[in-house]
Amino acid sequence: MSDSLVIIPTFNEKENIEKIIRKVFSLEQDFDILVVDDGSPDGTADIVKRLIIEYSSRLHIEERKGKLGLGTAYIHGFKWALAQDYEFIFEMDADFSHNPDDLIRLKDACLNGADMAIGSRYIKGVNVVNWPMNRVLMSYFASVYVRMIMRIDIQDATAGFVCFRRKVLQTIPLDKIKFVGYAFQIEMKFTAIKYGFNVVEVPIIFTDRTEGVSKMSPRIFREAFFGVIQLKWESFFRKY
After folding, report:
1. In what residue span(s) does the Glycosyltransferase 2-like domain sit (predicted)?
2. Is residue 48 within a helix (H) or strand (E), and if so which, with residue range?
């Protein structure tokens, strides 16, 4: 068993899931994988279960009934990882927008003093490939908006490529994390900072998916926009 677990939430990722699993397992460092599948009707879970026969001690799956949201999938995975005594716990997409090679760099950041390492698209300019300009601008200025409202020095607040040290997830009251989309990513970073953890950004190149369908929606964007204000307001009345 590795000391590192990569959590990959899935909904209809049959085009990507086997390739991403094999890529992670080909890395020079050992990472285990937990797939949290939200009842994908395209057979994503069946592909994972077939691969478990080949990677029995390193690959795991948790199946949930219905599309319950990214944030709840990660919370489910975090609790599972803590119960299994993993020290380094990662968030990563299934679609290769996050380069699995960068898992090693995120872990190195945590080995060298970070409690939470963020794979950042914006810490060194704008490092996004294959996104239309309107989405680049929306994502970039969303992070500017978060920094202005929440007064945190994070360039890529909505990033979903993250390594946590175990103690961060043990400290944050996971059952009180309320958001499910991009706002979930903001909430986790903001909460970790409020608890005094060392949060650092590691520059990455983000490449938009080439297979499968994006899960981005106007509802998720609205949640992030208004959720930032709600989080900041509630932080005035909360003890960390």
Report:
1. 6-171
2. helix 44-54
CATH at 188: 3.90.550.10
Q: Is residue 240 part of a domain?
A: no
SS (H, E, C) the chain: CCCEEEEEEECCCCCCHHHHHHHHHCCCCCCEEEEEECCCCCCHHHHHHHHHHHCCCCEEEEECCCCCCHHHHHHHHHHHHHHCCCCEEEECCCCCCCCCCHHHHHHHHHHCCCCEEEEECCCCCCCEECCCHHHHHHHHHHHHHHHHHHCCCCCCCCCCCEEEEHHHHHHCCHHHCCCCCHHHHHHHHHHHHHCCCCEEEEECCEECCCCCCCCCCHHHHHHHHHHHHHHHHHHCCCCC
Q: How many domains does the chain have?
A: 1
**Residue 166 carries which side chain, given as an amino acid letter?**
R
Question: 138: domain range?
Answer: 4-235
